[in-house]
Amino acid sequence: MSARPSAFGGTLRAIGWIGLGLTAVAVALSDFLARAPAGATGVGPMLEAPSEAHPFGTDLLGRDVLSEALHGLSVTLGDALLATLVAVLLGGLAGAMAARLPNPMSAVLRWLFGVLAAIPALLLAIVIIGLTARDYAALAAGLAAAPFAFVRAFDKVDVKSTHAEYARATGISSTTLLKRDLTYEFRDTLAQTAARALAAVTIILSTLSFLGFGSIPPGRDLGLMIAAAKASYLSAWWTAAFPALALVALILFARLAAGLDEGERA
Fold first, then answer.
1. Residue 151 covered by a domain
2. CA nearest 150: which of 198, 103, 193, 105?
3. 204: domain range?
4. How many C-beta atoms surround the C-beta of residue 49 within 10 A?
5. What is the pTM of this model?
């Protein structure tokens, strides 16, 4: 009975990684696939519905929505990858290392990051941007997602495991044991940790842009595209629907790649 859920979960993760791979290909070829340069206005009539000439329609400035969605996806994924790197290094990796520090120090770090994890990630990102600038939105998203990754990685470590006790009894130093654990244990979960962080920071970044704290024009990401289409949500649904579908697909693929049984937060 347990083999079926495991096989189903493996299939979902494979779908997620395939989807992320296809997304990466689309981003890499965005300049070739797009019908117009990023931000090009007057490409077609204003607010034209999806047609053969413009499969995703046009927006209020006559921009081709398909082209803009591809360029926006490129900006979104680029910022999200940078934020993911920050979250994995300062969250997942740091948490795995902190759990193996001497008890007083590890307990203080666990408490500190636990407090930070109690703050909504979006609010934490807005505070960081408020203290710096919108140019650092990707860094802010990564820092905001890091506490959750830190706590998850910290709590997964079993410093009293049988193999750890045996290693210490045989005279293996703590430094050597730390290197071994990080090499084998963290490496095995790195892909899932990164995929989970990618989903989390993408949500944070797109929400920041939607609220006006993220992407700065003319470099529009998907969140900013959706925000810019607010005036025409009902009269020209395609201006927001297609960027939103691209954003949902990216987040969904990342969550599937991470494994749906691992929780929803970074």
1. yes
2. 193
3. 3-36+71-262
4. 12
5. 0.87
Q: Is 118 exposed, middle or buried (0-12, 13-18, 19+ CB in 10 A)?
A: exposed
Domain assignment present for 212: yes
Q: What does the pLDDT look like over 101-137, one tens digit per residue?
A: 778 898 999 999 999 999 999 999 999 999 999 999 9
Whichever domain contains 237, its CATH number is 1.10.3720
Asked if the structure places residue 164 within a domain, the reply is yes
Domain count, the chain: 1
SS3 for the chain is CCHHHHHHHHHHHHHHHHHHHHHHHHHHCHHHHCCCCCCCCCCCCCCCCCCCCCCCCECCCCCEHHHHHHHHHHHHHHHHHHHHHHHHHHHHHHHHHHCCCCHHHHHHHHHHHHHHHHCCHHHHHHHHHHHCCHHHHHHHHHHHHHHHHHHHHHHHCCCCCHHHHHHHHCCCCHHHHHHHHHHHHHHHHHHHHHHHHHHHHHHHHHHHHHHCCCCCCCCCCHHHHHHHCHHHCCCCCHHHHHHHHHHHHHHHHHHHHHCHHHCCCC
In a domain, 51, yes or no: no
